[in-house]
Write a structure and sequence with these properties.
Elements (H helix, E strand, L loop, with lengths): L2 E8 L7 E6 L4 H12 L9 E4 L8 E2 L2 H7 L9 E2 L22 E2 L1 E4 L44 E4 L16 E4 L2 H15 L15 H25 L1
Parallel strand pairs: 1-7
Antiparallel strand pairs: 1-2, 3-5, 3-7, 4-6, 8-9
C-alpha cells in the first residue's frame, strides 16, 4: 500500500484547500469518511459527492485565486469525473500507478448536501456533547505578580519577565516593552472618567475586530480594582 496525500477543496465554501492522507488501497467511501471527520460535518458521509479535480486535458486544477473564484460560484460538476464510493483509490482512472499528483494543485472536489434547518451541513463548534476529544485542563492557583507603576503620560511600559511568566509572550525570560499610542491613553482616560469612576453605563460600539470585547474586560477589571480598594479602606476603618 502507498499513502496518498490528496489535496481537497469544498465547492461552495470559502477557505483554503486541505490535505487528507489515506492509503491508496482504501475505497472512495473511506475518503468521504475522512473528509467528514476532518471538517466535523453532521451529515452521513455517503451523502457527500467527490469529483476528480482534473481538466479534460488531464491536468489537475491549480490551487490559486482562480480556483477560489470557481469554488464560490456555480460549479458544473459534469465537467469532472465522479468518484464512486466502491472504487479503490489506486484505480487507474483515479490515483493508480503512474499518476503524478503534482505540486500546488487540488486533486478532489467535495460537494456537500444542501443545508437544512433540521440538519445543518456546516461544521459545528465543539459543544458539551462533543468535547470528549478535548484535552483535560489542569487548573492551578494564580501566581502573584509584581504591580506595575505606570504614569498617565508614559508611552513605553517595561514589564519584567516575572509579569509575563507562563503567558507564552517574551523570549529568554527578557522584559517585555509595550508602546502606548497617545490616542489610546486619551481614550482610556475618557472611559475612566466618564464611566468607571462615575459608575455610569458605558456603551462600546464598533465593527468586528474593533476591540469591543477586550475594552469591556479592561473596564470590568478597572471597576473590580476600584471596588477592591474601596472595600480595603472600609476594612481599615
Amino acid at each position: 500500500m502507498v499513502t496518498l496525500s490528496l489535496q481537497c477543496a469544498i465547492v461552495g465554501e470559502a477557505g483554503d484547500s486541505f490535505e487528507v492522507a489515506i492509503d491508496d488501497a482504501k475505497k472512495v467511501c473511506k475518503l468521504k469518511e475522512a473528509i467528514k471527520k476532518m471538517n466535523m460535518y453532521q451529515f452521513p458521509a455517503n451523502e457527500m459527492q467527490l469529483f476528480l479535480a482534473k481538466r479534460k486535458n488531464g491536468t489537475w486544477l491549480p490551487d490559486d485565486k482562480a480556483l477560489d473564484a470557481m469554488l464560490q460560484s456555480e460549479v458544473d460538476t459534469s465537467l469532472f469525473k465522479k468518484m464512486r464510493g466502491s472504487w479503490r483509490l489506486h484505480k487507474k482512472k483515479l490515483f493508480g500507478p503512474g499518476v503524478a499528483l503534482g505540486e500546488d494543485v487540488v486533486h478532489v472536489l467535495v460537494v456537500v448536501p444542501v443545508e437544512t434547518e433540521s440538519r445543518p451541513t456546516k461544521r459545528q463548534k465543539p459543544s458539551l456533547g462533543t468535547t470528549q476529544y478535548l484535552p483535560e485542563i489542569q487548573w492551578s492557583d494564580a501566581e502573584q505578580r509584581p504591580r506595575l507603576q505606570v504614569q498617565d503620560g508614559d508611552q513605553l511600559i517595561s514589564m519584567p519577565a516575572s509579569c509575563i511568566k507562563g503567558t507564552g509572550v517574551g523570549i529568554n525570560r527578557s522584559p517585555l516593552v509595550l508602546f502606548r499610542r497617545k490616542e489610546l491613553i486619551d481614550e482610556w482616560n475618557t472611559v475612566n472618567h466618564n464611566s468607571i469612576t462615575s459608575d455610569s453605563i458605558l456603551w462600546i460600539c464598533g465593527p468586528p475586530g474593533a476591540g469591543k470585547s477586550y475594552s469591556t474586560r479592561f473596564c470590568l477589571l478597572a471597576r473590580s480594582v476600584r471596588l477592591g480598594r474601596a472595600l480595603d479602606s472600609l476594612r481599615e476603618k
